[in-house]
Every structure is written in structure tokens, then in C-alpha cells.
Amino acid sequence: MQQYSSEFIQSRYQGDLGGCALLLLLIAVCFAANPVFAQRPSLHEGVLTLPYVVSNETAYSAELSLIPASDPVRFELIASQPLALNASLDGSTFADNRLFVTDIDVDGLAYWVELALIESEAGAPPLFEIRDFGVHAAVVSSNQLGLSIQPQWQRLLGSASDIGVGADGSVWAIGTDERSGGFGIYRWLGSTWQRVDGGALRIDVDPEGVPWIVNNSHSIYRWQDGAWQRMGGNARDIGIGADGTVWVTSGGGTYRYDEGNWIGVRGSGVRIDVDPNGIPWVLDHTNDIHQLIAGRWVRRSGEARDIGIGGDGSVWIVGTSDDEGNHNIYRWSGTAWNRVTGSSRQISVGPDGYPWAANAKGNIYRGG
């Protein structure tokens, strides 16, 4: 690799000091890191390797060396290499003097880290200083790794236009029979569907087995004491994580439910689901896939029409290629979307990582 490029770093940034706790974490990570995945950042033996970084519509690979005993933790840029832009790749970003790394896989956990460009002596390599870091969803859970390569689809009774599965295994569905508010609402009893009052377009289920719906007026309701309780706000879709975090997406933004209030973040979408750590994944109106990490939307590779996330952290999507009104199904490996057998329109995922799907005809299938 060539030495660091002046095109990659164009300015310097002077920031606040961090803490020595970060140093201890980084030293631990250096010795615990797994082998590098293709196109995935890694931290190994004191070297932070970034296979794909985007800055000012230019792509690079880069390597940064951990400065021993630095407090706050600092890295020195030791090499960079220009690359061709590739919209299908997930990468790190450098903008406004901040280097944001979305995924560093460490023992099955995905870390994100934000580094600030700081002042260095004239002619010296650029220095970066850790400002923030955290853990988000597991890259691939142990349950997901145990799944067979291809799901075995079982056709179930009834028809549906949307399905929601809770972390406790409860399954609810929106039917195909028109009702006030959208279509009929049904609860799976293990061998048959039980209809409840009301109508809706979208549904998801919390860890206690309680369904939340969005109707054709974009109103949000929760099932409570045998009736639908209006929750305020408006939405296009709703997603609930295995930790109970509820998110909705609307034309005006994306919102998290917090003790009776909806807390908004920038960015809207048409489909949403939530991982076990309460992190939303959103599909926008152009079918792009985004994940909210450290308060910012990170673009994931691929395109999708629907998304489902299981209680084990497994992420599934329905793609955009057409198969008689249906679309191919893919499972996230942590680095790429792997196609599986079958096609559908809607998808949801159970606590064990197995998907439920509804196709263009409304037929319901369960993967196993």
C-alpha cells in the first residue's frame, strides 16, 4: 500500500480529551479480534484496517496504527490506497473531520467507533483520536449460525398481507379481508387463526405478545385489555425489538416510543424493524436499507421491499427482483445478503431466527 494520501486527509481538528477507559477497551479488542472478514474493518495486533472508506465521493482503503499508551486513545494513519467507488459495499465514512467506522467484529459483537482528526506536527502522519464507541447488534448470533443453509417452507392455514412475530413467539397477522381501518386482524393459536376486532395495514408484536398496529389512516394502536388503545402519532410502519423498543417510520421522520411520547430522529422510510438492542433498520422509498448507529443512518448494501429481524438478531429481507409479484428472500450474514429458497412480499422473524412470510397471493409460510 502507498503511504497516506493528502487527498484522504485535507484538514486538522483539535478536540477534547477522552478517558483512559477507552485505552483499556482498545487494548482488549486488539488481542481478541477475530480474523478479518472481506470488506469488513478489523482491529488486530494494534492495527485498525479499514477496507473501504468513503470521503468526498472518493473511496480508499486505509490502515491506522494504535499509538501505545496514548490517553486519550489515538491512531496514526500509516497507509491508504485509492479505490473505485462501489455503492454495493458497506464502508466507513470520513466527513467534517470525523472518521466513523460502523462495524468492527469482535467475538461475535459488532462495535462502532467515531474518531476525530486532530492536529499533528507539520509533515507528520495524520492522527485520529477516539471520541465515542459502542456495541450494537450481534453480527451473527449462535442461533442463526445453527440454521440450515436453506429454510424448509411449510404452508399454513389462512391468508395474510402482513405478519408480526413477538420475542415470546406470539404471531399476529393482517388478513386479506377488507375491514374498516384496512384488513382483518388475526392471532395465531398454533393450528388456526382467531380474528379480533379492528382493521389495519401493518402489525408487529412486543416481547409480551401484545400487538401494535398501523391502520389506513396512519393511526397507531396497541391491543390492551381486549381493545385497541390509540397511542398518538402517525406512521407508515411499526417495528418492535426483542428488548421491547418500539419504533415507527412516517413521512416526517422515524420515531421511538418513550413512556407516552414519540422521540424523533431525522430520516423517514416506508418499512422498519428493530434488532434485539433496540436499533432500527429502515427501508426508504427507493428501497435502500439503512441502520441507525450512534444517532446516524448508515447505508447497508442491497435493496429491499420488506425487512424482518428475529429475537436472536437475525436479519431477513424481501428483495426487489420480481417473481410473479413476489421477491427473492435474503438473510444477513453480517457482511452480505445470502439468498435463500423461496419468494414473498412480506417477512417477519421469530425469536429462534426462523422466518414467517406472506406471498403475493396472501399465502402464509413458516420457515424451519
CATH architecture of the largest domain: 6 Propeller
Give the structural class.
mainly beta
- Termini separation: 46 Å
Strand order of the largest sheet: 2-3-4-8-7-6-5
Averaged pLDDT: 84
Number of domains: 2
Write down the Rg. 22 Å
The coarse overall form would be elongated
Which stretches are low in confidence, meaning pLDDT under 50 for 5 or more residues running?
Answer: 1-38, 137-146
User: What would CATH call the homologous superfamily of the largest domain?
Assistant: TolB, C-terminal domain
The number of helical runs is 2
* CATH fold-level name of the largest domain: Neuraminidase
Q: How much of the polypeptide forms β-strand, as a percent range?
A: over 45%
Biggest sheet details: 7 strands, mixed, barrel
What would you note in describing this structure?
The protein has 368 residues and is mostly beta strands. The chain has 2 helices and 32 strands. It has 2 domains: 120 residues, no CATH class; 224 residues, Neuraminidase (6 Propeller). Helix content is 5%, strand content 56%. Strands 2-3-4-8-7-6-5 form a 7-stranded mixed beta barrel. The protein has a 4-stranded antiparallel sheet with strand order 9-32-31-30, with no helix packed on it.
